[in-house]
Amino acid sequence: MNERSIMPREIDESKLNYNKFPGEKVDASGNLIKIGHRVFHLVHDYREAFDAEKLEQRFSDLFDKYDYIVGDLGYEQLRLKGFFSADRKKMSGENKIDHVQDYVNEYCNFGCAYFILKRVRSKEEKVIQAHTSERKVREGKKPSKFRPKKANSSSNKKKNDNENQSKFVIRQRSEK
């Protein structure tokens, strides 16, 4: 056998940065974490999984819409997943924070270290979000509940059959 095939491959430390264009700087002070202009609260840190440097390498603007961010470590790699708060009505159940334990049990390595960050939104951010969703409606992007229903040919056929049935008249027998 070759010695080369038995020896594990050594990876250069510079190649471990997965994001070639890292996002904003992560400042961690206690339980408050600031990522760029966003503020998060460290809700849960199982097995001391939180690492500011790895979070800075993985975080992107795609997580702006989520209320919670769960990061789990597997094979020394950080994986991030976004969740919505439980009071959001239009989101599916599996994307809400209530199901974070199911996510950890099903999709993460057994006993892996993970952390949960909760987004702390200011009143200004909430006003901006409401304004942008209102603007989308004004621009003609209507929610799906405002779509008119299409006429169903089978329902029209049933309606016509009911009208025809009401035209039948019951005659009495004539006596002879």
Please describe what this structure looks like:
- By secondary structure, the chain is an alpha+beta fold.
- The chain has a 6-stranded antiparallel beta sheet, with helices on one face.
- The protein starts with a helix and ends in a 10-residue tail after the last helix.
Mean pLDDT: 77
Give the CA-based shape: elongated
Helix run count: 5
Share of helical residues:
25-40%
Distance between the termini: 112 Å
- Placed side by side, the strands forming the largest sheet appear as 1-2-3-6-4-5
- Helix and strand pattern: HEEEHEEHEHH
> What is the level 1 CATH name of one domain?
Alpha Beta
Strand content: 15-25%
What CATH architecture label of one domain applies?
Answer: 3-Layer(bba) Sandwich
Secondary-structure class? alpha+beta
Q: From the alpha-carbon coordinates, what is the Rg to the nearest angstrom?
A: 29 Å
Indicate the CATH topology of one domain: Hepatocyte Growth Factor
> Largest sheet, described in full?
6 strands, antiparallel
**Low-confidence stretches at least 5 residues in length (pLDDT < 50)?**
none
